[in-house]
Amino acid sequence: MKLFDTIADMGHEQLVLCQDSASGYRGIIAVHSTVLGPALGGTRFWNYASDEEAIVDALRLARGMTYKNAVAGLNLGGGKSVIIGDNKTLDREMIFRAHGRFVESLGGRYITAEDVGTSTADMDYVHMETDYVSGLAGRSGDPSPVTAHGVFRAIQASAKERWGSDDLNNKVIAIQGCGHVGYYLAKELHEAGAKLIVTDIDAERVKRVVNEFGARPVGTDEIYGVQADIFAPCALGAIINDKTIPQLKVEIVAGAANNVLLEERHGDELEKRNIMYAPDYVANAGGVINVYGELAGWTSARSFRKADEIYDTILKVFAIAKSEKIPTYLAADRLAEQRIHAVGSMVRTWPQWPNK
After folding, report:
1. Which amino acids are annotated catalytic?
2. Are residues 170 and 111 located together in one domain of the fold?
3. How does pLDDT run across 117-154, given as a tens digit for each residue?
């Protein structure tokens, strides 16, 4: 692997390899862009097959955060960190304190938070060594309601674009995943008058949504082929693929799951089938909005108001896709790139010294 060529090709500013023998910590911090502000992105704890796999994952995820933060209109760049190891280990304090020290060494260029394999308790350990961490226990709270509200607004915007009205009354919506975000999304959709079809690997989660919102339960594999207006994936990523696309009987795909498309070509395939796709990192930006709200000292109500803006952002994505005749997943990237370029091109006033 040619590290400098890879970093240059993907547009990263910095890649930091970290290790602490005493704790057994091995970490990677990838800073993709700080054009809009400090690079924000969570810490993933995973047992990677190789160091190269871990590096590629960190680089890919960091770049994704740049686009997510930019399109959400936040003054944040994109970064990500990964810790290599068994995320089920009970000896966590020293690992995460070591991680916190390396985050601190970047002087605020990178701010971390929880991610796959990590928790708010882990971030509390990180916080022992640095203030450049968000998602702490007792701060902004559960981000799920804000994330779900943003997805709800994305669904409304998609309906507006497709049918000329964002009224979801009597629309049939299939939700895959009834966890925290899926539950709150189901609640908002039910209150809007939608009819719900739901599935989850956890039967108790399904039962709760069925009992509270009158949803119709189906098997985990059945959800792709149900007759519905909208499919809302709120569980695993990569579920829009060669196997599932032919089964879809919907007009819109819009949900909370990350990396819904297995490959970019599957976004092209949805386009060919006239299925409207609300790009996932635009629709689910409520989560990062919630984190930003914690950093900026926002109230919960202000975070919800910011998540409301996802409605207009999704409509902008559709407008770009239409004018440039490109799929919506590419249009979302264009919108993010426009903001990064606009801010990056602003005239810098001097002198900045000594008040940098």
Report:
1. 80
2. no
3. 898 899 999 999 999 998 777 676 678 899 999 999 99
pLDDT recorded at residue 109: 97
What is the domain count for the chain?
Answer: 2
The C-alpha atoms of residue 255 and residue 155 are separated, in whole angstroms, by: 8
Token output for 108: 């605020």
Whether 151 and 24 map to the same domain: the answer is no
161 and 280 fall within a common domain: yes
User: Which residues lie across from 77 on neighbouring strands?
Assistant: 39
C-alpha span between 39 and 18 (Å, rounded): 18
Residue 341: both structure tokens together: 């370029």
Digit-coded pLDDT (tens) for 221-252: 999 999 999 999 999 888 999 999 999 999 99
Q: How many Å apart are CA 181 and CA 132, to the nearest integer?
A: 26
Amino acid in the structure at residue 214: G
Give the three-state DSSP class for 36: coil
In a domain, 355, yes or no: no
Beta-strand relationship, 25-33 and 14-20: antiparallel
In this structure, the answer to whether residues 182 and 101 fall within a common structural domain is no
pTM over 0.90: no
Q: Does 344 map to a domain?
A: no
> For residue 148, what is the enclosing H or E element?
helix 144-163
Which structural domain, as residue segments, surrounds residue 11?
A: 3-66+76-127
Q: Exposed (0-12), middle (13-18) or buried (19+): which is 112, by Cβ within 10 Å?
A: buried
CATH number assigned to the domain comprising residue 330: 3.40.50.720
